[in-house]
């Protein structure tokens, strides 16, 4: 059992914000969630009480070293790896560019890389960049437009004896599809290539276990799971030790520091540690932090499925609304539902939901540009409603009512 929703909600001061005469209902979590008080406290506490650079002989510096070590342990507990495999950086995108550059140096001429059309550009462009630099081939795998699921047959065909790496998302930030990573991993093993997982959208909604996944590297972003704006990269230790990374000569060559260039965002790391602690604290039963995180993420996934079902059914029943991605119960998904409202650009729907209903939803393509293009909505964009650990059924109903009322008002304009 995890904390009741009301107890969770009390920890998020942002939920008291008012807009358009209503308390705000935040559905912008896939773009970045709200932050609970202990996370903001940890950032403040670090800056006001422990601020220093690392590896020096005075207390604030030692405390900073200790904080970073503690945060690596927390991230390792969240992801299932070991602390010396956790690399911190400014965001997932930058870390992935760095990883791609380093990997590219080691791949032989004629190598190929496989990406997918379901992915965020952050898990496509770093690999395209690498391919351009070393003249490698990139193959892109399509998804089924109806179900929003990856075309596994096409993936099998795309991977061949020259493939050095498959880059795939844990879940789609645009459609909510959860990918069958076990199947992708089997393929990667069979064909002897590396597996990189963009877990930015899956980590907030599902238990992650890099050991079980048997991937080689995985990235996530704590600001999507109640923390500050930093990025985290897990790299299998044997790979991390041997990666030809770009680094300054005097910088440490030990893992994981060898992949961290310059001074880290210490206060962000303090907040990320607190975000993992916050998630673990939602379960009060005995057990290690890793065990509690597992139980919490399973329960949040279960709650998310109920919210997703309500959102999907409610939105799909509105005349003029078209929802995308896996229908509830047909394939694993996160509580992220994207839709279009016929006759209106997504930006207008987003503005009206905020200004008329106090409901905050993102709009556009969310850098999942192939998803928007393949679905034929690159021009109008998608409206994206994402539930988080603080989302209530009442807020989902407000979202549905808001979209319904905008749909009714614009109904007459539809062709
Ligand atoms: C699925 C996915 N991958 C990657 C990213 C990029 O993450 P970051 O902002 O940490 O670079 C995002 C951000 O929205 C995302 O949703």
Describe the structure.
With about 425 residues, the chain is an alpha/beta fold. The protein is built from 14 helices and 15 strands. The strands form four sheets. A seven-stranded mixed beta sheet has the order 4-10-9-8-7-5-6, sandwiched between helices. It has a four-stranded antiparallel beta sheet with strand order 11-12-15-14, with helices on one face. It is globular and about 65 Å long. Bound molecules: pyridoxal-5'-phosphate.
Radius of gyration: 21 Å
| Biggest β-sheet description | 7 strands, mixed
What ligands are attached or bound here?
A: pyridoxal-5'-phosphate
Q: How much is the average pLDDT?
A: 97
**Which structural class fits the helix and strand makeup?**
alpha/beta
Give the overall form.
globular
List the helices and strands in order.
HEEEHHEHEHEHEHEHEEHHHEEHEEHEH
Strand order of the largest sheet: 4-10-9-8-7-5-6
Which runs of at least 5 residues are low in confidence (pLDDT < 50)?
A: none
DSSP strand content: 5-15%
Report, as a whole number of angstroms, the end-to-end distance: 50 Å
Residue share in helix = 40-55%
* Number of helical segments with 4 or more residues: 14
DSSP strand count: 15
């Amino acid at each position: 059992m995890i904390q009741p929703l009301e107890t969770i909600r009390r920890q998020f001061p942002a939920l008291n914000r008012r807009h358009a005469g209503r308390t705000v209902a935040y559905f912008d979590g896939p773009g970045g969630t709200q932050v609970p008080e202990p996370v903001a406290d940890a950032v403040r506490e670090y800056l006001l009480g422990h601020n220093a650079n690392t590896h020096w002989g005075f207390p604030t510096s030692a405390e900073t070293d200790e904080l970073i070590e503690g945060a690596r342990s927390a991230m390792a507990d969240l992801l299932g790896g070991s602390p010396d495999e956790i690399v911190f950086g400014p965001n997932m995108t930058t870390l992935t560019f760095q990883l791609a550059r380093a990997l590219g140096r080691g791949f032989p001429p004629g190598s190929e890389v496989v990406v997918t059309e379901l992915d965020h550009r952050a898990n496509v462009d770093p690999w395209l960049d690498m391919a351009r630099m070393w003249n490698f081939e990139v193959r892109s795998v399509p998804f089924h437009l109806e179900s929003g699921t990856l075309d596994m047959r096409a993936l099998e065909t795309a991977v061949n004896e020259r493939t050095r790496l498959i880059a795939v998302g844990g879940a789609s930030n645009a459609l909510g599809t959860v990918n069958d990573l076990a199947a992708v991993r089997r393929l990667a093993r069979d064909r002897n290539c590396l597996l990189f997982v963009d877990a930015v959208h899956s980590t907030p909604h599902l238990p992650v276990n890099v050991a079980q996944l048997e991937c080689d590297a995985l990235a996530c972003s704590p600001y999507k799971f109640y923390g500050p704006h930093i990025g985290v990269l897990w790299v299998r230790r044997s790979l991390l030790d041997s990666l030809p990374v770009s680094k300054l000569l005097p910088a440490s060559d030990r893992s994981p520091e060898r992949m961290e260039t310059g001074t880290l965002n210490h206060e962000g790391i303090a907040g990320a540690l607190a975000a993992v602690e916050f998630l673990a604290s939602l379960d009060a039963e005995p057990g290690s932090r890793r065990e509690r995180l597992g139980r919490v993420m399973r329960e949040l996934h279960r709650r998310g499925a109920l919210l997703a079902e309500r959102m999907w059914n409610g939105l799909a029943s509105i005349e003029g609304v078209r929802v995308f991605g896996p229908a509830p119960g047909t394939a694993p998904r996160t509580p992220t539902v994207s839709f279009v409202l016929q006759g209106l650009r997504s930006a207008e729907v987003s503005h009206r939901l905020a200004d008329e209903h106090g409901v905050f939803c993102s709009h556009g393509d969310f850098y999942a540009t192939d998803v928007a293009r393949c679905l034929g909505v690159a021009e109008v964009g998608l409206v994206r409603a994402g539930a988080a650990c603080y989302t209530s059924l009442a807020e989902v109903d407000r979202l549905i009512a808001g979209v319904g009322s905008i749909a009714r008002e614009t109904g007459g304009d539809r062709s």
